[in-house]
Amino acid sequence: MNAPTLTATPLEEIVERILATRQITRVDQHSLLTLSNLNAKEKLLINRLFDRLRSGLLKVVD
Q1: What pLDDT is attached to residue 39?
Q2: Which value, in Å, is the radius of gyration of the alpha carbons in the chain?
Q3: Does 4 map to a domain?
Q4: How far is CA 24 from the centre of its chain?
Q5: pTM, to two decimals
Q6: Residue 27 is part of which domain span?
Q7: pLDDT per residue as tens, the chain (62 positions)
Q8: Within-domain flag for 1
Q9: Where are the alpha helices (DSSP H) in the chain?
Q10: How many CB atoms within 10 Å of residue 15?
Q11: Which residues of 29-43 are buried (b: 16+ CB within 10 A; e: fewer)?
Q12: Which own/partner pairs from 39-46 qualify as long-range (CB within 8 Å, at least 24 positions apart)?
């Protein structure tokens, strides 16, 4: 697991954790879907996660 950088935002830390564990909770999913006012980098991070989720590379856990 990569250590979060000092400038990582809470969203980046969540994404790093999800990618490192290859697991996303329903709470994570809901939180990410309800975010608004995202910049281009944040949108890209979320799209990466949901692409991996759709591809079966992430496991949904409760």
Answers
A1: 93
A2: 11
A3: no
A4: 8
A5: 0.75
A6: 11-61
A7: 565 555 667 898 899 999 999 999 999 988 888 888 999 999 999 999 989 999 999 999 98
A8: no
A9: 10-21, 26-33, 40-55
A10: 21
A11: beebeeeeeeeeebe
A12: 42/9, 42/11, 45/11, 45/12, 45/15, 46/11, 46/15
